[in-house]
Fold these 2 entries.
Entry 1:
Amino acid sequence: MARTGRRRGKADTRGEILTAARSQFAAHGFAGATIRGIATEAKVDPALVHHYYGTKRQLFIETLQLPFDPAEVAAAAVEGGSEEAGRRLVRMLLEVWATEHGQAMMQSLLRSALVDADLYGVFREFMLESVVQPVVAEVAPDRVALRATLLVTQIMGLAIVRHVTHLEPLASADPETVAAAVGPALQRYLVGDLAD
Amino acid sequence: MARTGRRRGKADTRGEILTAARSQFAAHGFAGATIRGIATEAKVDPALVHHYYGTKRQLFIETLQLPFDPAEVAAAAVEGGSEEAGRRLVRMLLEVWATEHGQAMMQSLLRSALVDADLYGVFREFMLESVVQPVVAEVAPDRVALRATLLVTQIMGLAIVRHVTHLEPLASADPETVAAAVGPALQRYLVGDLAD
């Protein structure tokens, strides 16, 4: 995937920096990436990176912006009743993760959040508030907070096995196989009886 | 938990080094930990660490040794039929993770394996061959390899949420609540119909 067709010369310098930042954070994690390295990849002066985005931490948070609207994902996941929500959610996640932006964001998040203790808060906020809570609140009959964290365990584990540790045969399994296998687990966390 | 009662003065210098290594790998990850730091914590000469354990990588692999026999866990998990295997497995995992050894091992594994690409192999081998495969092979009706990797997604995600990112309310939920909530997912990955 290219830069979502926004390449417009100097007018998109901010975008170039953000793309370079995603790539550097994905490759080196938060701790390892440098403003200098990001500036070099974006072919701009490091001072310009600071000018547009402030500190490295602020820039990191900017790179976590989603390439889609979580509210739309929530709506799509529950469209037509919650019966199939789990499976549909898996399909959507696999689709997003397969994009270049998704890959970079995930690598960056996982590597950074697990290594730098002060980024746990960012990771937590991002995962729970921007992605998981809106979906869960839409369909859950009760215990929204617990369901959201349970959902995170399965989604994060799936992301890691598919895209970080590459455990086979799951890493290469086709989306429908994964949706059929993992969907019911998400479905149960979303709407099932958790004490059953 | 103390050093499993093996403290015997000089005779257990190897054990002291291993304990120090677990602590250092847990705190700094594979890349960040140093033989010198480990030697300092164990109060021995760095040369002795090399003498006993060779390279830092060899020492790291030594620290991954389990404090229990996976075959016993497998046997216990399937004891009395597979109906309750998932829930029983969650209870056992929570118990192991709560020990000091379990905590150190997990932190060390997660931080190192996600950051250092050359350690993926170690992580994969350890998780799949020593822990997961024996349990799955014992009860699975088919697709052992796929089930094993699915099991890893849920177990790894649970470990991360409980002990690394500390997402609440799941991180502090009592073991029975977690076993009831997550057990059925593991149960399904172990023996359920994955295409259902």
Note: The first helix of chain A runs from residue 13 to 32.
Entry 2:
Amino acid sequence: MAVLRGDHVLKRVGNSTIYFQNPPVILSSAAIGGKKEGEGPLGKDFDLIIDDSLYGEKSWEKAECKMLKEAAQLAVNKAGLTLDDIDYFLAGDLLNQIITANFTARDLEIPFIGIYGACSTIMEGTALASILIDGGFAQNVLVATSSHHQTAERQYRAPNEQGVKHKPTAQWTVTAAGAAVISREGNGPCVTHATFGRVIDLGIMAPDDMGAAMAPAAADTIARHLNDTQRTPGDYDLMCSGDLASVGKGIVETLLEQKGINVGNKYTDGGVLIYDLETQNEVMAGGSGCGCIGSLMCGHFMKEMKKGTYQRLLLMGTGALLSPTSSLQGESIPGVAHAITVEMNPGKQGGS
Amino acid sequence: MAVLRGDHVLKRVGNSTIYFQNPPVILSSAAIGGKKEGEGPLGKDFDLIIDDSLYGEKSWEKAECKMLKEAAQLAVNKAGLTLDDIDYFLAGDLLNQIITANFTARDLEIPFIGIYGACSTIMEGTALASILIDGGFAQNVLVATSSHHQTAERQYRAPNEQGVKHKPTAQWTVTAAGAAVISREGNGPCVTHATFGRVIDLGIMAPDDMGAAMAPAAADTIARHLNDTQRTPGDYDLMCSGDLASVGKGIVETLLEQKGINVGNKYTDGGVLIYDLETQNEVMAGGSGCGCIGSLMCGHFMKEMKKGTYQRLLLMGTGALLSPTSSLQGESIPGVAHAITVEMNPGKQGGS
């Protein structure tokens, strides 16, 4: 049901979920992964696997940039468009000052809207792109994100050369990039709803337990989304969070159960999908990083939707909003989670 | 003139400038400044001056957070609203992982959209807020940004205790926060247009010459905006860029002249307005930081518009998209500039 405020009708269901009147189309998408991601159970869903972590560049940061730029260009090519057809480029990443996104934007020469939602970036970007399109401000918007194991490791944790042992709760930053062209018209899965997350902090202090830090925000967003839309987990073929990995995923299930929501087999997480936690056990609890759900949305999930495996998905990005400085200053780690509903052939929305 | 693409009418003039059909209102705003900003020529336009750089906290980072949160809360109070009335909080800052904005969002408990545009953040946020509102997705949106001299100095340059001498081209990071409530209805200056910037890099390498690094992006956005809207500088009471300071401002004037645009006395810059460059000469070329144009927009300019001094302003935020890592790796500094037109009593827009 559309919500009335004053004299106005907002494109909203419930308290805080946006619905799109003419659901924007995910016209094309591209995913690039690293060697370990290529060896994972969804390796075949990447458009390109990069075996060399430096990707022929002089630094891992430059390699990440090259990967993001190639994913972006590939998504545009697959849409049958050129960069001139793209109205806005929305991107962000984990590196300080989102430098990967900035340098990619410099090369693309498209008006650029920089975003930061840590590992929730691809969903924040896709939601904003859909707002730009359904609001009448754009025809085609390019969204992209990336993470790189070595650049994240040395920025957030320790020099890679040090080979620090990780705790069982720790996660492995995914080397991957995802990009998508969101458009006003065309064929493909459509974005029907968006639920932006609140920043929630239950006091987790350990940067090597990020799944636990992000879980309360993930549970809050799922619960708000279901409540707003008056849906149950059964109304979705699958609900997938970003990169909570095995520890965080279990906490989300418990937190939702406490709210009276039984997700059954309708809920999973990108951090447990992207690696085989038994044979690739150096990843500990599973994957993390913007590139985790970023590449899964733009690779695996879009492919499966087009094949008909899924009709309606809730895709959620989950971000741990820490910085090394805040952790050193004794701050706990807040989390945020942004979710979108993606649907095949939804038709015009009027709320319901 | 509205632009046709396919069968659709986009809310756009020219190639890339958005116009708002029902221009969103800047319902209220608040600005907080530090001691030096309070002693500057516009000191009286701040709602609050903080004499102590630690603001009673244990670290400068926590002080910056407190300042941003208070500016945000003050803007909401001045609008006669409560936090419950705000649909979205959009914010960003200069610190790694925009931690100031994240922690403020944690305390506000409003759905949060994190953005990063370096010192262009307040304009990126105000443009996105206006899109959310004119697109029909929100009633009230809170936008905020901040910078703090000591937190920026030690993150980007050197420990404050070291007392490094700055070059004449260097700028002084402003300690200030600005926040604004953008709404669908009410009285106040309205946002009529937004021009998002492209990322432009002419190869400036020196982090102590940021004005020069940002100037090409600023000139590009002004030129595109004027071309899109078929306006001249004479159609504005004033066009103000964010924080180019004296060196960058001169370069913008030269670059615009090369494009055949004579700005005459219609152009100035926040970095030269916020300090008295003669008596406060330790600031070298002038101010910089998200809080510079952030606090000037939310303090000085909103006050002057309400007094009737200005009817139509072009306000632009300018961001230098560097990180200490990218500079160390030999990268040059790209810039970005986002602009909005703010007008008293514009009426309904249909393009023209």
Note: Chain B has two domains: 3-156, 190-344.
